Amino acid sequence: MTFVSFVVKNGLLSAIGDTVMDEPGEIALFPLNTVLFPGGVLPLRIFEARYLDMISECLRDHKGFGVCAIRSGGEVGQAALCYPVGTLARVQDFDRGDDGLLQVVARGERRFRVVGQHVEPNQLLRAEVVWLEDGGSAALPQERQPLADFLRQLLKRAGEPFSGLEPDYADAGWVADRLTELLPFAVADKQRVLEMDDPLQRLETLYRELLAEEVTR
Asked: In total, how many domains does the chain have?
């Protein structure tokens, strides 16, 4: 067990979970060519100084960072242009890989919308954000049970950290979010689902549009 796992497991950073997130706040952004949903996990290999500093700051100050999908630009170098809706992530675990790079597992917590941002000299993005409602939960319709069965097998094959998620296969939003994260849809399509508040709408968009497009290709 790494240091961060020990700290989180024993509740030594309980203040993280108690952070008030109803008021606008400023967070660092991590632009990526992927989409993270609340409740999901994201493994990262970090080597750029700006993000090493960001992770250190997050651990030191008990705060999260924002994961935003890239609209244009790249993950490395100049600050990218991001979609305005992203997900707050917190470090769940970290270690040093065999290649010497910092390996981090982050967990998605809550969606936000960027209302202002600036670029620091090291090209780290910081944004003023407002927090979005989670849209509640909804039971998975019986006719969509095959999606939950498919997700169960997908998570088993994916391995850690995905197989370590606490499952909720009866929840429509949880099933829709995990499948959208894991399946190789276009980033713009994943982003469209992330921005939907209604869990049943996310599920039906996944089933009727995204999966249907994959089948017909």
From this structure: 2
